[in-house]
Design goal:
The protein is built from two helices and eleven strands. The chain is mainly β.
Length: 142
């Protein structure tokens, strides 16, 4: 089992909006999430649908998630006016806490992932196996 993020807890979407310092966006293509979790003192909100995960995190300049990659390398694409990265294969993922301390020790396996920026919020959509569908979902985020 993957380790939870620091301070991770299950909350309602309304409560998550109170706990984070950034606007939470939802993909219209997926509807309301089945589950919502807030982590690391409100730095990350994770939204879940069957087989899919959308992490939204405060900011973009600091390392938040570290990916362990090899070939094939991420493919550059775009979501709206933002450059995005598509990672088409399963890969290891660790989380770097806001405190800058040690990364979560056990990396978890992550599925294909699309990563992009929306204003001051970083987003990573995980679990969609095809780039076209991932882009469709990402472009529906409001």
């Amino acid at each position: 089992m993957p380790q939870p993020l620091p301070g991770e807890r299950r909350v309602t979407l309304e409560r998550a909006r109170e706990l984070v310092a950034f606007p939470i966006s939802l993909p219209a293509a997926l509807g309301d999430p089945a589950e919502v979790r807030v982590s690391d003192g409100g730095r990350v909100v994770s939204l879940f649908w069957p087989g899919l995960r959308l992490d939204e995190y405060d900011g973009s300049l600091h390392l938040v998630f570290r990916k362990e990659l090899g070939p094939p390398w991420p493919q550059e694409t775009a979501v709206g006016g933002s450059t995005a990265q598509w990672i088409p294969v399963h890969h290891g993922l660790t989380y770097v806490p806001r405190s800058g301390g040690q990364a979560v020790i056990r990396p978890r396996p992550a599925g294909p992932t699309l990563i992009w920026q929306r204003e001051r919020v970083g987003l990573r959509l995980e679990g969609v196996g095809e780039l076209g569908r991932a882009l469709e979902i990402a472009r529906s985020v409001r």
